[in-house]
Amino acid sequence: MVAGIRTRDLRKVFTSAPPAGAGTGGFSFSGPKAKGKQPKPNIVALDGISLDIASGEIFCLLGPNGAGKSTTVGVLTTRVRPTSGQAFIGEHDVWQEQVAVKRLIGVVAQRPNLDFSLTAREILAFHGAYFGLSSHERAKRAEALLERFKLTDRADQMVRGFSGGMMQRLSIARAMMHDPQVLFLDEPSAGLDPQTRLLLWEIIREYNQSGKTILLTTHNMEEADALCKRLAIVDHGRVIAIGTPLELKASVPGGYLLRLRFGHHSPDLLERFRSLAGVREVRATDNNSADLYADRGGSLIPEIANLASAGSVELCDVHISEPSLENLFLHHTGRSLRE
Amino acid sequence: MNWKAFFAMLARDAHVARRNFVALLFQTFLQPLMFVFIFGRVMVGSGYMPPSYKSLLLPGIMAICMVGTGIWAVAMPLIAEFQFTREIEDRLLAPMDISWLAVEKVVAGTLQALAAGLMVIPAAWLLLRPGVDLNVPRPLLFAVVALLVALFSATGGLALGCSVEQTHIGLMFSLVVAPMIFFGCTYYPWSALQKFPILQKAVLVNPLVYASEGLRGTLVPQFPHLPMLAVVAGLVFFNVLMFVTGLRKFHGKAVT
């Protein structure tokens, strides 16, 4: 049986500080202000997330820290109770049928949560035992996963002394131990060196090729671009764009983004930029900066420089981005993913 | 109910306890046995305490050992696993209702507390002999009391472990565990508080009173002790209270 993921208008409002890694979405604090009493914070982490992820898909939630990615994963993996809305893994309602859902999913949390009282091999074996695998099956799978994740030489050591990268690899191996239909990876490559990241990508693709559904969160655009069939860009607890990486990149007006900085600029000057061939959109970001979306990049620079000098405006800095998910995020939110 | 997952988690706890066996042994027995040695052997030997104090002391020490072990075995891992290592998350994601994970913690803590209680009897007896006058006329009642005490230690550990912040562990011992021991009729019988009537009534809110008086009433019934019906009723009440509170707090920690 292969399972997909569906959510319908998921909302989550934290009335106390959300757990680390759960995201804080919109940061909209409000609440009754009783005199002498600390008001309860209302933190909107999810503000109506609806997703439809087909079985066998690699789907990515891309967004900055605090966008609501981890809270979405938390709701889908039974760890966060939604304030309203519904979530399904396959045909099972996540909140109503938790045990059935937990049989179908494997989860890699954002922060390492390995069992520090056990060795690497024991961690895999006990995890298999929780899911009812026979001892022979546990030993066989643990051995294969340790080998695949290049952990065989440390298999019988306590994980306390493992490096961050090794812990992350072991966490992923553990999540795969019971061969789940749906794998959740919350920021899987954070803190990994490039070589291990490539190994991880290879393993994720391989796992997906065996028909499994994978939902991963990241704030790394290259990762989303390289791995995902489709992705949703989330910010402030909302999905702001959804589609294949190609579709999304094509949805940015023109594709290219030129970020310009001047001594100062005028609406007049920006209007003249709009009339240049290939320019689709010009937005002032503040008194001396503007973002210009166009279907070409470097060839526009001389024309921009000419117009600026004709208007006696000093052009201080130009940054050109080729079509990317970063540009898309910027176009929708006015902020960079990296900010 | 997924018994396979439940027993796998018990096996995991047993495995970890076995690995830390020597440390556990010292942690559980060293302090109570030093107390037994000084008060039961040195003070009695030098004439500051009457010889009968040896028999009076033993059930109290057993209660301290059991309650201390159960609380430690359940509360400390829960505090660390929920707040610091987060290693409980893997078990929360096992295909089993999460309430059963709390039950598993209670079962593991109860077994450890029982083992500690049963091991302290011969150890203290060896340290104190001769002159320890144990007699168990009602072994079944003793077994019931010992089980209720062990269960209380574990349910208390569940409630504490899911309520106390990691930074307040020291405070938990000085504000909760230490007063519980000193006002728990462990080193003296409840009847010894007759001259302090207000204190005598007040200590009845302390579950350890029922534990030490219950063990006293079943191991050395020749000494004055609370009626056994009151002991059993008190222990059952605190067991239910701690379990219900603990389970509610456990859910609060496990699901946000």
List the helices and strands and how they pair.
The complex is a heterodimer of chains A (339) and B (256).
Chain A (H helix, E strand, L loop, with lengths): L4 E10 L28 E11 L4 E5 L6 H8 L7 E6 L2 E2 L4 H7 E4 L11 H11 L4 H14 L15 H13 L5 E5 L7 H16 L3 E6 L2 H7 L2 E6 L2 E6 L1 H6 L5 E7 L4 H8 L4 E8 L2 E6 L6 H10 L4 E7 L3 H9 L6
Parallel strand pairs in A: 3-8, 3-9, 6-7, 7-8
Antiparallel strand pairs in A: 1-2, 1-4, 4-5, 9-10, 11-13, 11-14, 12-13
Helix pairs in contact in A: 3-4
Chain B lengths: L2 H17 L1 H25 L7 H31 L5 H4 L5 H31 L10 H23 L7 H14 L14 H6 L4 H13 L8 H27 L2
Written account of the structure:
The complex is a heterodimer of chains A (339) and B (256). Chain A has two domains: 5-114 and 162-249, Rossmann fold (3-Layer(aba) Sandwich); 253-322, Alpha-Beta Plaits, CATH 3.30.70.1340. Chain A is 32% helix and 26% strand. Chain A has helices at 69-76, 98-104, 120-130, 135-148, 164-176, 194-209, 221-227, 245-250, 267-274, 301-310, 325-333; strands at 5-14, 43-53, 58-62, 84-89, 92-93, 105-108, 182-186, 213-218, 230-235, 238-243, 256-262, 279-286, 289-294, 315-321. The two termini of chain A are 41 Å apart. The model of chain A is unreliable at 21-34 (pLDDT under 50). With 256 residues, chain B is mainly alpha-helical. Chain B has ten helices and no strands. Chain B is globular, with a radius of gyration of 19 Å. The mean pLDDT of chain B is 90. Classes of the chains: A alpha/beta (339), B mainly alpha (256). At the A-B interface, helix 2 and helix 3 of A face helix 1 and helix 4 of B.
